[in-house]
Amino acid sequence: MIVKFKKNAGKSNRLFVVCPFSFTESVLREKYGEDLYFLSCSGAVLSYSDPVYLKAIGEFLISKEIKSINFVHDTSCRFINGAIRKAAKFGLHAESLIEEVYQAHFEEVFKGLPLSDRQYKLAEHLINRQVRDLLNAEYLGGLLLDAGIEVKGLITSRQRVFFEDVQLYRNQRLIHEC
Predict the structure, then answer these.
(1) Which range marks the domain in which residue 163 is found?
(2) pLDDT tens digits, one per residue of 71-128
């Protein structure tokens, strides 16, 4: 897994978790300004199995005084569309998680919806899953709560040109305690 933290000019307290294949960094800079941090990982899906990786993220959050983490999913994401279209996989963790989320909610959420609605709903479910996993992650979950770091979700669409915040639980501490 390749993890890159990128810093643009200026001081920022925002970290955006993005997929490098969705090309959302420049669009986010246009909307939110140049002074943002980006954590690029396939499908904008973090892996919680490597304690060294989680510790590095935690140290970054503390050293840069990050106040919010924003999971960003674009509806054109190749991994979202791959799960919907049952495309061949490359063995990435993101592919497995996205497929798992899609299959778990297929009957009650996705079945019969047009493609654009399935893309949006899958992005929404992925963000909620990522937030829950992050807040329940050993070390990081407690760190976020103790430091008061807000976790947010954002769905973008390059085709339809929109940014929508995903409604998350009002109290992140409740998610952590689930």
Answers:
(1) 4-177
(2) 999 998 999 999 999 988 888 999 999 999 999 999 899 999 999 999 999 999 999 9
Please give the tally of structural domains in the chain. 1
Nearest Cα residue to 143 out of 62, 71, 69, 65: 62
In order, the DSSP letters of the chain are ---EEEE-SS---EEEEE-TTTT-HHHHHHHH-S--EEEE-GGG----S-HHHHHHHHHHHHHTT--EEEEEEETT-HHHHHHHHTPPP---HHHHHHHHHHHHTIIIIITT--HHHHHHHHHHHHHHHHHHHHHHSTTHHHHHHHHT-EEEEEEEETTTTEEEEPP--S-HHHHHH-
Measured in whole angstroms, how far is the alpha carbon of residue 152 from the centre of its chain?
9
Could you tell me the CATH number of the domain that includes residue 153?
Answer: 3.40.1050.10
CB 16 within 8 A of CB 76: no
Token pair 């639980």: residue: 169
The pLDDT tens digits for 123-168 are: 999 999 998 899 888 888 889 888 889 898 999 887 655 566 666 6
97 and 77 Cβ atoms separated by less than 8 Å: no
In the prediction, which pLDDT does 175 show? 44
